[in-house]
User: What shape does this take?
Amino acid sequence: MYQHFYNFTRPPFDNIPDPGFLYLSPQHERVLSVLKYALLSRTGFCVITGNVGAGKTTLVRSILYDLGRSTVVGLVSNTQCDSFEELMRWILLSFNLEYRNKDKVEMYDDLVQFLIRQNEKGNFVTLIIDEAQHLDMRVLEQLRMLSNVNTERGQLLQIVLVGQPELSDLLRKPEIQQFAQRISYDHFLGPLESAEITERYVRHRLSAVSDRDDIFEPNTYALIHKASGGIPRLINMICDTSLVYGFAEELQTIPLRIIEQVLADKRMGLAPLQRDPVETSAELPVNTNLNTIAPVAAKPRHRTTASLADSIIERAMARKAE
Assistant: This one.
């Protein structure tokens, strides 16, 4: 709805893993360097972990564009598998190999023959498994066995596991110590570290779709960072909704009060935003009786959600009629 109003070529805060929007914060650059080196060295497993919405998938997919034609990549995103046989089918499918009506031995042999053929052509094969925290220990152990196809021919298969912090917890279990010993590189991708980096992230996404990167007023970024905890996915949600509210009020620049209203509305729902610190006795005069404190009146909001919705619909209908 707001795309034409702000002269965007496309929505700047869609939560899709689009490498074109990748912003390299200092730690994103470190993870990218580790990942690139792991793919070039082709030794053992590589593990990238991070919080939900930290940008792991976008980072991984961005590097695929930098790989030469000599690298064949298979990407598996569906890891909710009941067995290793089911995971093997997804692996074969990721390399465009036939997977139907085959048992475990046949699928394994097909994959090995594929790896040998690619090696004879001078190609490298990389398997990337996203959301790997859903794999159980039995599946991980059998996945380790795939690395045994690497013989005197060299490293035929490079495996990269990408997942949430639970993946690290899983890999620390003593039951899969042999798997952990084959991990050559691992790195954790955390949230954006500061309001300044959050500002650069937001401006980067805006500049990718328009000639303006100053749509959000400078005093909004500290609150955006605090409420989102520096998680890019939550930053996107806050900024996207703020643009909707700004569109409803015909605002070319988003002020702090719009961010405050968005956060107030989102916190009434299911959005996992950081809460404002609640006043405690540490913030009150010594010996204050908490029972005698008068309740603080809520700050008046600029507009109700219902009136905003009406404005959005009216503006959208008017633009459609133009």
In short: The CA atoms of residues 199 and 221 lie 6 Å apart. The chain has twelve helices and five strands.
